[in-house]
Amino acid sequence: MKPWHRIIPFLKHALTKHGGIDLRSLQFRMTTGVTCVSVLGIVGVSGWMVWRSQDVVIGDQKRQIMALAEQIPEDIEAYAETLPTEAALEKMVMVRSLPDVSIVVSDDQGDILSHSQSPWHEPQFLVELVNIPGLSMQPSVFQTEGRHYIGCEGPLTINEEDLGTLHVALDITESTRMFRQLMLSLGGATVLAIALITAAIAYYVRRSVQPLRHISRITADLTVEDLDHVQFHLENAPSEVSELAQTCEITLQRLADTMTQQRQFVHDISHELRTPLTVVYGYLQSILRRSQSLNELQKEALEAATSEAERTIRLLQDLLDLARADSGNLQFSLIPIHLNSELEHCLKILKLNHTHPVHLHAAAENIYAMADADRLKQVMFNLIENAIRYSDEDQPVVVKLAETKNSAIIQVCDRGIGISEEHQSQIFNRCYRVDAARSRATGGCGLGLSLVKTLVEGMKGTIHLDSQLNQGSTFTITLPSPQPNDHDTNHRSRRRRREARSLH
Q: How many whole angstroms separate alpha carbon 472 and alpha carbon 191?
């Protein structure tokens, strides 16, 4: 492959990003700007060289014609001293005739009195030379019959005798052809130089912005856990980029410290508030159990206070679990779980507190998954209560259970109001609510789904949402299936627990 055949692929690789040119990128702007300046410089220098070369070549030939036109009268005067005027004129034409020079003397009527004798000078050309308009004593370039000439004309006066008009022309066709070939070669060399310079500039700019791309890649993949130990490790980076990287490291460290303090604060405040609220909730329930001496207004107020206390306790528990998950202190005991039994148990508990119909549809009788039983119940309670909250009373919530080769699948389906597509990507974010105005009425605080996602991922699973407005929502949980050795481990752990209980 020839060298210039590699230029276009290299330029495409150097200037493209993800298969297309990013017109707003710093790399493209710098490459384009520097290349344009370089191209303007090269084109300017090349244009000046063309103009100067043409001026030198044509100028020399014009001076040659001018000198010949000035020398002819002197030659005729010299020959006229020994010869008649007509004979002197003929002798001058014979002496000065050259293959590429045409000399013609015509009278006032345009008839040719004398002309150079050369096989290249046809009579038709001599007639055209006499009748070419615009010629003067100042040489000029003209073209006839596909050939280029430099010519001039003027009165021929010898010893104050007017002999007619002198016409002199120099054939520059070959010189013009060579000059054009030279210009084509210069143009090709200019284009190649521009391509090479553009490739070099693109490569240089790409190398120069590589540290910035490195910083972008690292920061794009950052997680909360990585903030406090980010190191960019830039080599041979410009000082400005190194300063930027150092500033980013300091900023990320400060952000990590702030988030750590925030997590600790949430953990501490949740823990401190949960205990007194639990006590208050217990007293309120105790008073409600002895409600025979209370009137309806007092009973309604206590029920509202109990409900708010219970909701606040759940909120604090969710905050505490999220804070533990962020700090890595949320423990999971992953063992093979019989999902059929666990889900049936969850539905029994929910039916004690909700009258909304909830049905379980299992594709098989014995479906197992590697999960934490307590965390799985927490996930199911959140999802089912969320489905009940946004469903009509006559529309049942359906829990589906199925399995594949390597995983177990749990789906919580409702026929409620659904979630628009613009909100689905953010529904698992903390404190995010689709309708903030309705959150208080429905009891939502925006932490339930975020906690669900955290717990499911902590059990090595995934959760996905499919929803359409006014058609309902489906939350799909995928948990890994246990392997044969997982069942053996589970049996051994259960046997140890039974032995321990028997010893006691």
A: 64
* Per-residue pLDDT at 441: 44
Pick from 126, 103, 105, 102: which is nearest to 114 by CA? 105
Element (H or E) spanning 124, and its range?
Answer: helix 123-131
Mean pLDDT by 10 residues, the chain (504 residues): 51 50 74 84 84 82 86 84 82 80 81 69 70 79 82 83 84 84 85 86 81 78 70 74 81 79 68 75 78 77 80 73 69 88 89 84 90 88 87 88 91 88 78 52 60 87 89 91 66 49 42
User: Which pLDDT belongs to residue 116?
Assistant: 76
What is the structure's pLDDT at 177?
Answer: 86
Residue 198 Cα distances to 8, 11, 188, 204, 320, angstroms = 10, 8, 15, 10, 59
What residues have CB less than 8 Å from 31, skipping those under 6 apart? 14, 15, 198, 201, 202, 205
282 Cβ neighbours under 8 A, 6+ residues apart = none
- CA triplet 133, 139, 145: central angle to 5 degrees? 55
Residue 149, judged by CB atoms within 10 A of its CB (0-12, 13-18, 19+), counts as buried
Tokens of 200: 């070099």
Answer whether 0.90 is exceeded by the pTM: no
pLDDT of residue 296: 79
Residue 102's closest CA among 20, 171, 165?
171
Q: Tokens 């007092």 belong to which residue? A: 298
Q: Could you give the CA distance from residue 205 to residue 197 in angstroms, rounded to a whole number? A: 12
List, in sequence order, every residue forming a beta bridge with 476; answer none if it has no partner. 411, 464
The values of phi and psi at residue 457, to 5°, are -65, -30
3-state class of 105 per DSSP?
strand
| Of 337, 317, 352, residue with least CA distance to 487 | 337
End-to-end CA distance of the chain: 85
E-assigned strands of 353-395?
358-362, 368-371
Q: Report the interhelical angle of 296-327 vs 239-289 (nearest 10°).
A: 150
The pLDDT of residue 167 is: 84
